[in-house]
Q: What sequence folds into this?
């Protein structure tokens, strides 16, 4: 089956082209994958590459707090 898409928004075009370049795939392959994903035809969800799983996981640790405080100290002699 063949389709022709017109009036693709510039922001969508940029994202699809960047993904195709980054993954070494054709623009057609990337666009079809996006359509299949949105239609629920892909069995797996794309892997998230963010740090959201670490959000809110800070544990209070006096040694770490001291090390961070030491890093924030300015050594006046270094700036003379």
A:
């Amino acid at each position: 089956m063949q389709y022709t898409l017109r009036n693709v928004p510039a922001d969508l075009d940029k994202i699809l082209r960047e993904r195709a370049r980054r993954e070494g795939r054709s623009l057609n392959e990337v666009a079809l994958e996006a359509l299949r994903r949105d239609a629920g035809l892909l069995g797996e969800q794309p892997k998230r590459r963010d740090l959201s799983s670490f959000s809110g996981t800070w544990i209070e640790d006096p040694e770490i707090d001291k090390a961070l405080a030491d890093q924030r100290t300015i050594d006046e002699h270094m700036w003379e």
